[in-house]
């Protein structure tokens, strides 16, 4: 059976299909589209005004005994306009100037990814990693995490199998951001700090949020590849992050040499095109799953 055929067989999940109308009702309370999520071509697709959303997934591997073993998949949004033009998701959030719209789009994307993840019958214990814009967490006025906790309960998913990746962004209220992250942690979610090494990221953000994981931005791996003198500094950075209680993910692994650099630096996990590219449908190597 081909990979696509296996994927289509796995899509037959009546529990997920039954939950779709209820999730649409929850999202519709924001006052935008009545049915923002729909079935198309065997998958769940999303929409907001002129924008159309779909999910792709990229594996994250644990470096166990030096060898990569599947630990998580990161859900990524692919955004297009009604004419098929592509848009980078970060640009989409930058264009959303009102807090209400930002919260709505963020929640819709998380529900979209969750449904498409479950439709593929992932192996038990596999973690789903979801990007969350830091500004979204500041914008939410009600109890943080309540909406998504209800969505997970509807689908029978435990929060401990979901890692929320806080996308690095400058926020005006770091205390409020800390409170939001702590609320998610209290609900049982794993917390990751994404894109460390670029933008607003710094050790102060690590001290503030105390994430379970820190994902090194791919630019650090590129610099370590091009400038061998920086590899010792990368090892020192990984050690500092671990002293703060975080496990470290090396992103942007695009070659075997970069994989070796990540190993030597002490990274706990790795992710990148050399290991697997983002895809609509994944074949789960159950024997490699590592909780």
TrEMBL record:
For the EAL domain, which residue ranges apply? 37-291
- Coiled coil stretches, renumbered: none
- Record-linked SUPFAM superfamilies: EAL domain-like
| Superkingdom classification of source | Bacteria
Q: Cite the PANTHER family for this sequence.
A: CYCLIC DI-GMP PHOSPHODIESTERASE PDEF, SIGNAL TRANSDUCTION PROTEIN CONTAINING A EAL DOMAIN
Tell me the protein's name.
EAL domain-containing protein
Origin species, per record, is Chromobacterium aquaticum
